[in-house]
Specification:
single chain, about 40 residues
C-alpha cells in the first residue's frame, strides 16, 4: 500500500467516510468503509 493510500485511509477513518475505489488494498484497512462501485 502506498503512502498516499494510507493518507486517504487515515483521513476517511478520522471522519468516518466511505472510500470509493477499485484499489483492493483499501479492503485490508481495518474499520475502513470501502465501496468498489456506486449503487444503481
Amino acid at each position: 500500500m502506498q503512502v498516499t493510500d494510507l493518507t486517504i485511509a487515515t483521513c476517511a477513518l478520522t471522519v468516518k467516510a466511505t472510500v470509493l475505489t477499485k484499489d483492493s488494498d483499501f479492503l485490508r484497512v481495518p474499520g475502513l468503509n470501502v465501496m468498489t462501485e456506486l449503487p444503481p
